[in-house]
Amino acid sequence: xxVGWKRWRRRVPRLRFxxxxxxxxxxxxxxxxxxxxxxxxxxxxxxxxxxxxQSTVSRLLQRARKEGIVRxxxxxxxxxHPELEDALEAAYGLEDAVVVxxxxxxEQIVRDLGAAAAFTLENTLKPxxxxxxxxxxxxxxxxxxxxxxxxRCPGSRVVQILGGVGSPGAAMHATNVTRRLxxxxxxxxxMLPAPGIVGSPEARHILMKDQxxxxxxxxxxxxNVAVVGIGAVEPSKxxxxxxxxxxxxxxxxxxxxxxxxxxxxxxxxxRGQPVITLxxxxxxxxxxxxxxxxxxxxxxxxxxxxxxxxxGALAGGWINVLITDRAMAQxxxxxxxxxxxxxxxx
Length: 346
Hints:
346 residues; alpha/beta; 7-stranded parallel β-sheet; 14 helices
């Protein structure tokens, strides 16, 4: 007992020392956390004021979170939907999802999606990016109308990846989307001076030999960011007005084969599988296998009419970034995500 008592007496100062050291550490932790989070000082300023190493400041801030001294609460502002975005990314394997609050009218949805797409491009494009754009999309037209000039992209290039020649009024829209985007980015531009749809495979073969068409097509493999609309089988008013549509009889055949939507006039079914018909040989655009090789494909689409088309695009993995409206996001999450058709079209 006497030995035990002596041992305990020797340990008391050591325990007291450890307790005091722990309190001192918590005190410094709290001081650093208050300086950083409440007083707004940088880590460098804290380092200089307390005369400690910057790595010590960083370590103390991390420890303050683990100890519960600092608790970070993120409050979502009205009009933002991070939970829906996270759920879409998890359900469909997306790199990013942007969900926009919008009204029910298609024109309003288009404007809101365009504004969101403009903000996304302004903040994510990098120098020397090669940006492909499908031109027959009201949302993409709204995007360039909403964009601000940016100097983030020196050395970049915009490439038209869907033929933009059509009826004069509509063709002007297609040209405007491509050229205006390049101007806003300070980028070089390469147009695709051909219709999106031609009358026969033979006509396509002849047009594909054109020098300027070849210049655009040869750049398709270099595209690392593609911004695309997602179309339903029933064409939008802009596409219908352009003349770049298949006859109603052919559209019925596509529907009968299971087609639900398209990107760059390349059709797919609800499982994302390409719907291959002879009509494919009448389209001048980037095809689905080429699209799959693009590292970042931003799909911009919303509205009830396009639900099946967006489902198919997601199921096939043809896009990895989605910009859509809240109602569409909710509909997509109610669907059981279809197994992605990995490798389809390759």
